[in-house]
Amino acid sequence: MKALYTTMIGALTMMATYSCNGSSSKTAADSDSITAAQALRARLDSVSASGKIIFGHDDDPVYGHTWVGDEGRSDILEIVGDYPGVMNWDLGGIELGDSVNLDSVSFERMRAEVIAQDARGGINAFSWHSVNPVDGMNSWACEDTTIVAQILNNPEVKARFDEQVRSVARFMNSLTDTQGNKIGVILRPWHEHTGSWFWWGEKQCTVDDYKALWAETRRIMDEEGVDNVLWAYSPDRVTSDDQYLERYPGDEFVDIMGADVYAYNAEKGVDQYRMAVASTLGAATRAANDRGKLVAFTETGLEGVTMPTWWTEVLLPAVKEWPAAYVVVWRNAHDKPGHFFAPYPGHESADNFKAFHADSTTLFARDLNEIR
Ligand code: BMA
Protein backbone atom coordinates (compact mmCIF):
# COMPACT_ATOMS: atom_id res chain seq x y z
CA MET A 1 0.00 0.00 0.00
CA LYS A 2 2.77 2.37 1.04
CA ALA A 3 4.75 1.62 -2.11
CA LEU A 4 1.72 2.27 -4.30
CA TYR A 5 1.04 5.57 -2.51
CA THR A 6 4.66 6.66 -2.98
CA THR A 7 4.59 5.76 -6.66
CA MET A 8 1.39 7.71 -7.16
CA ILE A 9 2.85 10.76 -5.45
CA GLY A 10 5.91 10.37 -7.70
CA ALA A 11 3.72 10.24 -10.81
CA LEU A 12 1.66 13.23 -9.67
CA THR A 13 4.72 15.33 -8.92
CA MET A 14 6.21 14.37 -12.27
CA MET A 15 3.05 15.56 -14.01
CA ALA A 16 3.32 18.80 -12.05
CA THR A 17 6.93 19.20 -13.19
CA TYR A 18 6.10 18.65 -16.82
CA SER A 19 3.05 20.90 -16.83
CA CYS A 20 5.17 23.65 -15.26
CA ASN A 21 7.86 23.13 -17.86
CA GLY A 22 5.55 23.76 -20.76
CA SER A 23 4.85 27.42 -21.40
CA SER A 24 6.30 29.23 -18.43
CA SER A 25 9.69 29.29 -16.80
CA LYS A 26 8.25 28.25 -13.44
CA THR A 27 9.82 25.17 -11.94
CA ALA A 28 7.96 22.46 -10.04
CA ALA A 29 9.35 23.82 -6.78
CA ASP A 30 7.47 27.09 -7.41
CA SER A 31 4.18 25.25 -7.36
CA ASP A 32 2.21 25.59 -4.14
CA SER A 33 0.90 22.07 -4.50
CA ILE A 34 4.11 20.12 -4.06
CA THR A 35 7.11 20.43 -1.76
CA ALA A 36 10.66 21.03 -2.92
CA ALA A 37 11.41 17.43 -1.91
CA GLN A 38 8.64 16.11 -4.15
CA ALA A 39 9.87 18.25 -7.04
CA LEU A 40 13.39 16.86 -6.58
CA ARG A 41 11.98 13.35 -6.40
CA ALA A 42 10.23 13.91 -9.74
CA ARG A 43 13.45 15.15 -11.36
CA LEU A 44 15.40 12.16 -10.07
CA ASP A 45 12.61 9.82 -11.19
CA SER A 46 12.84 11.19 -14.71
CA VAL A 47 16.64 10.74 -14.71
CA SER A 48 16.19 7.14 -13.55
CA ALA A 49 13.55 6.49 -16.19
CA SER A 50 15.92 7.77 -18.88
CA GLY A 51 18.59 5.23 -17.89
CA LYS A 52 21.15 7.98 -17.39
CA ILE A 53 23.19 8.75 -14.30
CA ILE A 54 24.21 12.05 -12.72
CA PHE A 55 27.87 12.44 -11.79
CA GLY A 56 28.55 13.90 -8.36
CA HIS A 57 31.58 15.06 -6.35
CA ASP A 58 32.00 15.88 -2.67
CA ASP A 59 32.95 19.51 -1.79
CA ASP A 60 33.55 20.14 -5.48
CA PRO A 61 33.65 23.98 -5.78
CA VAL A 62 35.21 24.89 -2.42
CA TYR A 63 38.62 23.24 -2.79
CA GLY A 64 40.51 20.91 -5.08
CA HIS A 65 43.73 18.92 -5.13
CA THR A 66 45.95 22.01 -5.35
CA TRP A 67 43.76 24.92 -4.22
CA VAL A 68 41.39 25.98 -1.47
CA GLY A 69 38.77 28.65 -1.01
CA ASP A 70 38.84 30.20 -4.51
CA GLU A 71 35.54 31.21 -6.08
CA GLY A 72 34.32 29.81 -9.41
CA ARG A 73 36.72 26.88 -9.42
CA SER A 74 36.26 23.11 -9.49
CA ASP A 75 38.69 20.35 -10.46
CA ILE A 76 35.87 18.81 -12.55
CA LEU A 77 35.00 22.12 -14.23
CA GLU A 78 38.63 22.65 -15.15
CA ILE A 79 38.77 19.28 -16.91
CA VAL A 80 35.40 19.03 -18.69
CA GLY A 81 34.05 22.59 -18.68
CA ASP A 82 31.05 21.76 -16.50
CA TYR A 83 30.25 21.27 -12.84
CA PRO A 84 29.17 17.91 -11.44
CA GLY A 85 25.40 17.38 -11.46
CA VAL A 86 25.38 16.47 -7.77
CA MET A 87 27.48 18.11 -5.09
CA ASN A 88 27.80 16.40 -1.73
CA TRP A 89 28.41 18.47 1.40
CA ASP A 90 29.20 17.36 4.91
CA LEU A 91 27.40 18.87 7.87
CA GLY A 92 29.85 17.58 10.49
CA GLY A 93 30.42 20.41 12.98
CA ILE A 94 27.07 22.13 12.53
CA GLU A 95 25.87 20.33 15.67
CA LEU A 96 28.60 22.16 17.63
CA GLY A 97 27.46 25.56 16.41
CA ASP A 98 30.75 25.87 14.52
CA SER A 99 31.01 28.25 11.59
CA VAL A 100 33.06 25.72 9.58
CA ASN A 101 32.60 21.99 9.08
CA LEU A 102 35.04 19.23 9.99
CA ASP A 103 36.97 19.85 6.76
CA SER A 104 37.09 23.65 7.36
CA VAL A 105 34.36 24.49 4.83
CA SER A 106 32.37 27.45 6.14
CA PHE A 107 28.64 26.82 6.40
CA GLU A 108 27.98 30.25 4.90
CA ARG A 109 30.04 29.35 1.84
CA MET A 110 28.36 25.94 1.71
CA ARG A 111 24.92 27.57 1.69
CA ALA A 112 26.00 29.98 -1.07
CA GLU A 113 27.35 27.09 -3.15
CA VAL A 114 24.16 25.06 -2.62
CA ILE A 115 22.17 28.01 -3.94
CA ALA A 116 24.56 28.43 -6.90
CA GLN A 117 24.40 24.72 -7.70
CA ASP A 118 20.60 24.82 -7.61
CA ALA A 119 20.56 27.91 -9.83
CA ARG A 120 22.65 26.16 -12.49
CA GLY A 121 20.27 23.19 -12.44
CA GLY A 122 22.42 20.96 -10.24
CA ILE A 123 21.49 18.94 -7.18
CA ASN A 124 22.83 18.99 -3.62
CA ALA A 125 23.24 16.12 -1.18
CA PHE A 126 24.42 16.07 2.43
CA SER A 127 26.19 13.62 4.68
CA TRP A 128 26.68 14.26 8.39
CA HIS A 129 29.81 13.16 10.24
CA SER A 130 28.38 14.24 13.57
CA VAL A 131 30.11 14.19 16.94
CA ASN A 132 28.34 12.04 19.51
CA PRO A 133 26.14 13.76 22.07
CA VAL A 134 27.61 11.80 25.01
CA ASP A 135 31.18 13.08 25.19
CA GLY A 136 31.51 15.08 21.97
CA MET A 137 34.01 12.70 20.37
CA ASN A 138 33.97 12.58 16.57
CA SER A 139 32.07 10.11 14.36
CA TRP A 140 35.01 7.72 14.17
CA ALA A 141 35.40 7.32 17.94
CA CYS A 142 33.58 4.02 18.10
CA GLU A 143 34.99 2.30 21.18
CA ASP A 144 31.95 3.33 23.22
CA THR A 145 29.16 1.01 22.12
CA THR A 146 26.48 2.70 24.24
CA ILE A 147 26.10 6.03 22.40
CA VAL A 148 22.94 5.22 20.43
CA ALA A 149 21.37 3.47 23.42
CA GLN A 150 22.11 6.55 25.54
CA ILE A 151 20.54 8.84 22.94
CA LEU A 152 17.38 6.79 23.16
CA ASN A 153 17.30 6.17 26.90
CA ASN A 154 19.19 8.88 28.78
CA PRO A 155 17.13 12.10 28.91
CA GLU A 156 20.17 14.39 29.14
CA VAL A 157 21.86 12.80 26.14
CA LYS A 158 18.58 12.74 24.27
CA ALA A 159 18.16 16.48 24.84
CA ARG A 160 21.65 17.14 23.44
CA PHE A 161 20.93 14.90 20.44
CA ASP A 162 17.67 16.72 19.90
CA GLU A 163 19.52 20.04 19.68
CA GLN A 164 22.10 18.52 17.30
CA VAL A 165 19.38 17.38 14.91
CA ARG A 166 17.63 20.75 15.20
CA SER A 167 20.84 22.48 14.08
CA VAL A 168 20.69 20.37 10.91
CA ALA A 169 16.98 21.17 10.50
CA ARG A 170 17.69 24.90 10.73
CA PHE A 171 20.33 24.61 8.03
CA MET A 172 18.00 22.62 5.76
CA ASN A 173 15.24 25.17 6.31
CA SER A 174 17.65 28.00 5.45
CA LEU A 175 18.31 26.64 1.95
CA THR A 176 16.20 28.89 -0.25
CA ASP A 177 16.73 30.18 -3.75
CA THR A 178 16.74 33.83 -4.81
CA GLN A 179 12.93 33.79 -5.07
CA GLY A 180 12.68 32.53 -1.50
CA ASN A 181 11.59 29.02 -2.52
CA LYS A 182 13.03 26.17 -0.52
CA ILE A 183 15.68 24.15 -2.36
CA GLY A 184 15.09 20.39 -2.45
CA VAL A 185 18.13 18.44 -1.22
CA ILE A 186 19.16 14.92 -0.24
CA LEU A 187 20.16 14.05 3.33
CA ARG A 188 21.96 10.82 4.15
CA PRO A 189 22.30 10.43 7.91
CA TRP A 190 23.82 7.52 9.82
CA HIS A 191 25.56 6.23 6.71
CA GLU A 192 27.76 3.14 6.28
CA HIS A 193 26.15 1.59 9.33
CA THR A 194 26.89 -1.95 8.08
CA GLY A 195 30.51 -1.19 8.96
CA SER A 196 31.76 -0.53 12.47
CA TRP A 197 33.80 2.65 12.10
CA PHE A 198 31.22 5.21 13.28
CA TRP A 199 29.48 5.41 16.67
CA TRP A 200 26.22 4.36 14.91
CA GLY A 201 27.86 1.31 13.28
CA GLU A 202 26.86 -2.33 13.30
CA LYS A 203 28.92 -3.29 16.35
CA GLN A 204 28.06 -0.04 18.12
CA CYS A 205 24.28 -0.43 18.39
CA THR A 206 21.51 -3.00 18.09
CA VAL A 207 19.28 -3.36 15.04
CA ASP A 208 16.32 -1.89 16.91
CA ASP A 209 18.32 1.00 18.31
CA TYR A 210 19.67 1.90 14.87
CA LYS A 211 16.14 1.98 13.48
CA ALA A 212 14.98 4.05 16.46
CA LEU A 213 17.85 6.51 15.81
CA TRP A 214 16.42 7.13 12.35
CA ALA A 215 12.87 7.43 13.63
CA GLU A 216 13.94 9.93 16.27
CA THR A 217 15.92 11.94 13.70
CA ARG A 218 12.92 12.09 11.40
CA ARG A 219 10.55 12.98 14.24
CA ILE A 220 12.67 16.01 15.15
CA MET A 221 13.18 17.12 11.55
CA ASP A 222 9.45 16.81 10.87
CA GLU A 223 8.71 18.79 14.02
CA GLU A 224 10.99 21.54 12.65
CA GLY A 225 8.94 21.59 9.44
CA VAL A 226 11.70 20.30 7.18
CA ASP A 227 9.94 19.45 3.93
CA ASN A 228 12.69 19.96 1.37
CA VAL A 229 14.65 16.78 2.09
CA LEU A 230 14.78 13.41 0.36
CA TRP A 231 16.16 10.84 2.76
CA ALA A 232 18.84 8.41 1.64
CA TYR A 233 19.70 5.14 3.37
CA SER A 234 23.26 4.13 2.53
CA PRO A 235 24.81 0.93 3.87
CA ASP A 236 28.46 0.27 3.13
CA ARG A 237 29.25 -2.87 1.11
CA VAL A 238 27.10 -5.89 1.96
CA THR A 239 27.10 -9.47 0.73
CA SER A 240 23.34 -10.15 0.75
CA ASP A 241 19.96 -8.47 0.39
CA ASP A 242 19.15 -9.50 3.96
CA GLN A 243 22.22 -7.69 5.23
CA TYR A 244 21.32 -4.62 3.15
CA LEU A 245 17.85 -4.48 4.71
CA GLU A 246 18.65 -5.71 8.20
CA ARG A 247 18.69 -2.18 9.68
CA TYR A 248 16.39 -0.51 7.15
CA PRO A 249 14.35 1.92 9.24
CA GLY A 250 11.14 1.64 7.19
CA ASP A 251 9.48 2.90 4.03
CA GLU A 252 8.04 5.94 5.78
CA PHE A 253 11.55 7.25 6.54
CA VAL A 254 13.45 6.62 3.31
CA ASP A 255 13.20 7.90 -0.27
CA ILE A 256 16.48 6.71 -1.74
CA MET A 257 18.14 3.32 -1.49
CA GLY A 258 21.83 4.12 -1.51
CA ALA A 259 25.10 2.21 -1.48
CA ASP A 260 28.60 3.27 -0.42
CA VAL A 261 31.19 1.03 -2.06
CA TYR A 262 34.84 2.02 -2.51
CA ALA A 263 37.50 0.36 -4.62
CA TYR A 264 40.53 -0.45 -2.52
CA ASN A 265 43.25 -1.19 -5.01
CA ALA A 266 43.57 -0.64 -8.74
CA GLU A 267 45.65 -3.71 -9.56
CA LYS A 268 44.09 -6.44 -7.48
CA GLY A 269 40.86 -4.79 -6.44
CA VAL A 270 38.86 -4.25 -9.62
CA ASP A 271 37.16 -7.66 -9.68
CA GLN A 272 36.48 -7.45 -5.98
CA TYR A 273 35.03 -3.95 -6.47
CA ARG A 274 32.76 -5.20 -9.26
CA MET A 275 31.47 -7.97 -7.02
CA ALA A 276 30.89 -5.58 -4.10
CA VAL A 277 29.02 -3.16 -6.39
CA ALA A 278 26.93 -6.02 -7.74
CA SER A 279 25.96 -7.25 -4.27
CA THR A 280 25.41 -3.83 -2.66
CA LEU A 281 23.99 -1.71 -5.49
CA GLY A 282 22.16 -4.85 -6.62
CA ALA A 283 20.54 -5.14 -3.17
CA ALA A 284 19.69 -1.41 -3.25
CA THR A 285 18.10 -1.82 -6.69
CA ARG A 286 15.98 -4.81 -5.70
CA ALA A 287 14.89 -3.13 -2.47
CA ALA A 288 14.02 0.07 -4.35
CA ASN A 289 12.06 -1.78 -7.04
CA ASP A 290 10.04 -3.60 -4.39
CA ARG A 291 9.13 -0.33 -2.69
CA GLY A 292 8.90 2.31 -5.41
CA LYS A 293 12.06 4.09 -4.20
CA LEU A 294 14.97 5.68 -6.00
CA VAL A 295 18.43 4.10 -6.22
CA ALA A 296 21.68 6.05 -5.78
CA PHE A 297 25.37 5.16 -5.70
CA THR A 298 25.84 7.49 -2.75
CA GLU A 299 29.64 7.18 -2.36
CA THR A 300 32.33 5.50 -4.37
CA GLY A 301 35.80 5.99 -5.75
CA LEU A 302 39.35 4.74 -5.92
CA GLU A 303 41.55 6.84 -3.66
CA GLY A 304 44.23 8.57 -5.72
CA VAL A 305 42.56 7.26 -8.92
CA THR A 306 45.61 5.06 -9.48
CA MET A 307 44.22 3.47 -12.64
CA PRO A 308 44.28 5.89 -15.62
CA THR A 309 41.26 4.25 -17.27
CA TRP A 310 39.22 3.84 -14.09
CA TRP A 311 36.38 6.06 -15.32
CA THR A 312 35.48 4.24 -18.51
CA GLU A 313 36.72 0.76 -17.65
CA VAL A 314 35.47 0.40 -14.09
CA LEU A 315 32.97 3.05 -12.98
CA LEU A 316 31.05 3.46 -16.24
CA PRO A 317 30.43 -0.27 -16.79
CA ALA A 318 29.42 -0.60 -13.13
CA VAL A 319 26.79 2.13 -13.36
CA LYS A 320 25.57 0.85 -16.69
CA GLU A 321 25.06 -2.57 -15.16
CA TRP A 322 23.42 -1.15 -12.02
CA PRO A 323 21.60 2.02 -13.06
CA ALA A 324 21.18 4.57 -10.30
CA ALA A 325 19.97 8.16 -10.37
CA TYR A 326 23.39 9.49 -9.37
CA VAL A 327 26.91 8.48 -8.38
CA VAL A 328 29.09 10.53 -6.03
CA VAL A 329 32.87 10.29 -5.72
CA TRP A 330 34.48 11.61 -2.56
CA ARG A 331 36.53 14.76 -2.05
CA ASN A 332 39.79 16.00 -3.53
CA ALA A 333 41.49 17.09 -0.32
CA HIS A 334 43.84 20.07 -0.70
CA ASP A 335 45.84 19.22 2.41
CA LYS A 336 46.31 15.44 2.03
CA PRO A 337 48.13 14.84 -1.28
CA GLY A 338 46.99 11.23 -1.83
CA HIS A 339 43.41 11.76 -0.66
CA PHE A 340 41.45 12.48 -3.82
CA PHE A 341 38.79 10.57 -5.75
CA ALA A 342 38.21 12.76 -8.81
CA PRO A 343 40.82 13.82 -11.35
CA TYR A 344 42.33 17.31 -11.45
CA PRO A 345 44.01 19.05 -14.40
CA GLY A 346 47.16 17.13 -15.26
CA HIS A 347 46.15 13.95 -13.43
CA GLU A 348 46.81 10.75 -15.39
CA SER A 349 43.10 9.88 -15.52
CA ALA A 350 41.95 13.34 -16.70
CA ASP A 351 41.64 12.37 -20.37
CA ASN A 352 39.76 9.24 -19.47
CA PHE A 353 37.44 11.34 -17.33
CA LYS A 354 36.72 13.45 -20.43
CA ALA A 355 35.54 10.27 -22.16
CA PHE A 356 33.39 9.44 -19.12
CA HIS A 357 31.88 12.94 -19.34
CA ALA A 358 31.31 12.58 -23.10
CA ASP A 359 29.48 9.25 -22.73
CA SER A 360 25.76 9.68 -23.39
CA THR A 361 24.93 7.96 -20.07
CA THR A 362 26.50 10.55 -17.77
CA LEU A 363 24.85 13.81 -16.77
CA PHE A 364 26.56 16.92 -15.44
CA ALA A 365 25.09 20.24 -14.26
CA ARG A 366 24.40 21.64 -17.72
CA ASP A 367 22.56 18.46 -18.78
CA LEU A 368 20.38 18.73 -15.70
CA ASN A 369 19.58 22.36 -16.38
CA GLU A 370 18.07 21.19 -19.66
CA ILE A 371 15.71 18.71 -18.00
CA ARG A 372 14.20 20.70 -15.19
C1 BMA B 1 36.41 11.08 5.15
C2 BMA B 1 37.76 11.69 4.84
C3 BMA B 1 38.06 12.69 5.94
C4 BMA B 1 36.92 13.72 6.03
C5 BMA B 1 35.57 13.04 6.15
C6 BMA B 1 34.41 14.00 6.09
O1 BMA B 1 36.11 10.07 4.25
O2 BMA B 1 37.73 12.35 3.60
O3 BMA B 1 39.28 13.33 5.67
O4 BMA B 1 37.13 14.58 7.13
O5 BMA B 1 35.42 12.09 5.13
O6 BMA B 1 34.39 14.72 4.88
Q: What would you note in describing this structure?
A:
- 42% of the residues lie in helices and 14% in strands.
- With 372 residues, the chain is an alpha/beta fold.
- The protein has an 8-stranded parallel β-barrel, surrounded by 4 helices.
- Strand 2 and strand 3 (67-68) form a beta hairpin.
- It starts with a helix and ends with a helix.
- The model is unreliable at 1-29 (pLDDT under 50).
Give the N-to-C terminal Cα separation: 29 Å
What oligomeric arrangement do these chains adopt? Answer: single chain
Find the structural class using helix and strand composition.
Answer: alpha/beta
**Arithmetic mean of pLDDT:** 92
Strand content: 5-15%
Which strand order do you get reading across the main beta sheet? 1-4-5-6-7-8-9-10
Radius of gyration in whole Å, from Cα? Answer: 19 Å
- What percent of residues adopt helix (DSSP H or I)? 40-55%
Q: Assign an overall shape.
A: globular
Q: List the ions, cofactors and other small molecules found in this model.
A: beta-D-mannopyranose
Enumerate the spans where pLDDT stays under 50 for 5 or more consecutive residues: 1-29
| Tally of separate helices | 12
The succession of helices and strands, N to C, reads HHEEEHEHEHHEHEHEHEHEHEH
Q: Biggest sheet: strands, sense, closure?
A: 8 strands, parallel, barrel
The count of strands amounts to 11
